[in-house]
Amino acid sequence: MRPFLADENVPPSDIRRLREATLDVTAVRDDASGASDPVVLARAVREQRILITSDRDYSELIFHAGHPAPPGVVYFRSKGDDAVDLATWLLDWLAGDNPPLEGWLTVVKRSRVRRRPLP
Known about the structure:
This protein has helices at residues 12-20, 28-31, 37-47, 57-63, 86-95; strands spanning 4-6, 25-27, 50-53, 73-76, 104-108, 113-117. The chain is of the alpha/beta class. It has one domain (4-117). The chain is globular, with a radius of gyration of 13 Å. 31% of the residues are buried.
């Protein structure tokens, strides 16, 4: 399984839970707090990590601005009543009989999951 890069907006409690489940998760907040989205995206590409984020700017950078895509992006697009428990969702997805995250922008909402192939 590919390692993950957790964007700065991923809560520390979720990062901790993912690490406790033995996932390889590097957190931007640990060593690059305040890094711009293009810098975080370039790091995910360079380190070949699946990016976990709640920031929709990454899809804009990849699909409209032409930045290179990392192995995968998991975008949690949940707010308020539609909020998703990030760590639980990701662990359940990985444990289930689901398609791989590699090669896709996976948009997660409580009501549905949408996937778009990365360029």
